[in-house]
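thought: fold this chain, then report.
action: predict
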Amino acid sequence: MLPRRFAFASALALTIACGAAGGVLAQTPPNAIANPAVWPKAASPATITDAKTEAFITQLMSRMTVEEKVAQTIQADGASITPEELKQYRLGSVLVGGNSAPDGNDRASPQRWIEWIRAFRAAALDKRGDRQEIPIIFGVDAVHGHNNVVGATIFPHNVGLGAARDPDLIRRIGEVTAKEMAATGADWTFGPTVAVPRDERWGRAYEGYGEDPEIVKAYSGPMTLGLQGALEAGKPLAAGRVAGSAKHFLADGGTENGRDQGDAKISEADLVRLHNAGYPPAIEAGILSVMVSFSSWNGVKHTGNKSLLTDVLKGRMGFEGFVVGDWNAHGQVEGCTNTSCAQAYNAGMDMMMAPDSWKGLYDNTLAQVKAGQIPMARIDDAVRRILRVKVKAGLFADKRPLEGKLDLLGAPEHRAVAREAVRKSLVLLKNEGVLPLKSSAHVLVAGDGADDIGKASGGWTLTWQGTGNKNSDFPHGQSIYAGVAEAVKAGGGSAELSVTGDFQKKPDVAIVVFGENPYAEFQGDITSIEYQAGDKRDLALLKKLKAAGVPVVAVFLSGRPLWTNPELNASDAFVAAWLPGSEGGGVADVLVGDRAGKPRHDFQGKLSFSWPKRADQEPINVGDPGYDPLFAYGYGLSYAKPGKVPTLSEDPGAASAAANVDRYFVDGRTPPPWMMSASGAASLKAIDAGAQENARQATWSGEGFGVVGVMGSAVDLSRQTTGDMAVMFRYRVDAAPTKPVSLSLTCGESCRATVDVTSTLSGAKTGEWRTAKIKLSCFQAKGADMTHVLSPFGLWTTGPLTLSFTEIRLASNEGDAFCPA
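observation:
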């Protein structure tokens, strides 16, 4: 699912010639029409409903108007609908997208979450005339714990849980997640994710348990049971359980080149064998909804593919819950827009996720039903399925015994499950005898992930991309450094924190925690799996410590295996820690032994994704012809079963150039392929801003035109633009402007778009560090060709001005990006 500002289909819709429902569509190609006979049989349990429930639904539907029925099939985002509007339209569902939150505050208190959800719930039941009182179902993306809410337990992402190979652990994680959701009043989570990522260049690979369907198949049922409990005939879900949604149907992990929202160009046999494996177990465990993918199969969007949704999912696989769309995904179906898509309804979609397009979609869908473009029988089927789930979820009874019990968020017993999950997910790739550490040792903990719970948690954590989080946003959490410090203190040792690896007293050993910064869908898509291609700053840190004679333990944070041969060579031990979440103590449990250096816990994790030997090796999956990884699927050393890793080749292979489209000035460097320069009446110099030469000061003399900018080879930023990304720069005004200042984006010799940022800079207090985010769409609206950006940042003026910068990059719009007037 996407955040509330991701209007991907709005740009796409401009190119569609036939936007009205019922337009003439191209014939579906034969290789995108499923044959139900080759798919496995399955069935929702009989306990998903009962005669009394169906009779209740029949009676209720007999009193519902067509307007009320259509409203049940539409879901709005909480940031784009008010309770007053919900009173009028009575939609079937409200959700919170990745960047949605009460009052637009991603760090809203749990109590405010309860109040916000209750306001929508009350609005849906507001009595007006003879309208039926039908509760909403409130949905959230609780994909690794109740990760939208400050204070919740944050579990490892699925990439780590797959390495644990423990279905019972998965069930218990589902139980904890459901309880913490219930405490804040949420009814429905968009999980479990049962994708099978086949290309780690995909930015959502960490949401998958593994590259082989065996793990997904083993986990989907237990996670469903953990969230929902076993369905009982004639009874709603038990207290502390929530409705789940298996996602994303289908083959979102099988798109060409790992492109998010892309096309799975594969045979039907592979579609069934690889990518459908998680759905039958979830259906048989009673999953109450299925979310359909943005992506396509052989050129046809799943949201409009009747053979998959109706003939296979609801027919052959016997799914009796309801089918929900992804964020405005219906707008990508051929012939559709965000506000009009009879095709998706007729294909078998039951509820449309129309976060910011709900009002137009309601009006058009109502007209299409009345005109017969969407048969009334199709709407009745959708409404019956939705009401069936609402009854089963206990929403009509409205008994919420856990709501308001906020001590459940981050409860000690919940954190214990998360800490266990961290221990079991760690995979030991290399150990030259340095692990386990003696708890009596003096340990240096270094790297930018050492004391950063947000980095360890990754995307889909408080915000969509998981960026901007501080340790204080995790009041019950523990960083990896804090966990290590606690463990060595208990054994009489000591721990020292230094991000840069500097130390006063030489340590016995250094733990260096480093890796990928948080990201989510599409922003996380990469073209090369080389870690820090062209900018090996973490490798330099490892080598610095080795040169000082300090044994080095690398703890690598990532949402996928990456080519890290140089980093492996520079380490005495190397641990794939994935994205462990809020319980850093789980890392220390395994790395730090007792005073004598005997293990307290052994490594249990085994790779659920193959680790590449070269940077040009994607895709690489177990069972592929010519399979030749560095570390194979299922690999994992332990204290009980050690192994030797020889010195590795540091040749990344062919065509492994960095494809850095979003970082322009970070950590005092301008990463390739970009260069920062000044020309005309402007100059640049390196300065210190908390670290040595980590900032640049730009000075305009006022003696004519001067520009300071970032220039490189052309990059395509069209997807970042439709994803509502922004040019972010952290700056300090050292001397205020006296003449207009412009920010430009250059896309060719005669292609440049400019916005006026004078008021932004003039309004800043001199000497104070600030951050500005200018939407990419601002430049597109002024005519920029976002597919061919040569310079994403050019600041110019003819007057005197002095500015300092510490960072220039693309960033997610978290409600703080704007277009200057």
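thought: worth noting. The first strand starts at residue 74 and ends at 77.
final: tokens above.
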